[in-house]
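Please review this one.

:::
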Amino acid sequence: MSSRTVLRLLHQLGYSLQANAKVTEGAQHPDRDAQFRYLNDLAAGFVDDDQPAISVDTKKKELIGDYANGGTEWSPAGEPERVQVHDFADRALGEFAKAIPYGIYDVANNEGWVSVGDVADTAEFAVESIRRWWNLMGRARFPHADRLLITADAGGSNGYRLRAWKVQLARLAAETGLRITVCHYPPGTSKWNRIEHRMFSFITMNWRGRPLTSLRTIIDLISATTTHSGLTVQAGYDPEWYPKGVKITNAELAAVPLSPHDFHGEWNYTITAQPDQA
């Protein structure tokens, strides 16, 4: 029997070539759905009260240089963009060969900010990105704000177990005078974070097929991202140095004015604004 006959018979039996489907999520926390409802209710309340509610996350790190980038782009026939055969980071650049985009998405106004660093994805870098959003965009959008809601993943540089994340947020609260409430998505549900499908996905679509040859190119492509629904994004380079492995002592953590919520206080908590003792 020929391969064409096998192909025809398979089609007649209802078969087709299909890729794997990522649908099996494994074990789920018993309060997963309740946490989603709690988070959504809080976000809706902040928006109704004209208080800022933001979704934050680190986008996938990107190699800087003439490397292949997924997708296609319009070019003259037979003249594709020439890029490196192998995607190996330039050893001369070391850790600076990668761009680290940390994003903040304003849920109510459909706009975002992305800080692009090249050192490390640390809690200090994450909170500094939120600080930049507030100073450049948030303060003008919410001139009467006294509260801020942050929705974030359960892990990474903004994970709920990370001491440095809470210490840095306490410093931000002291600087801005904002009461900062944080709600984390349950473990294993990061793909439901709003910033993923409302901002990051469109940034990826905007630079498809284009080599990310420099930090300037990355920032320009992020800033040029728009959608028919009105999404706008601003971006900037963060040149600061953020050391890895910073240890937070028990005393430093105890000094954070943190109040856990009654429902899953490890995921939901509020940091009040106190003067920065430092």
The chain has one domain: 54-72+91-271.
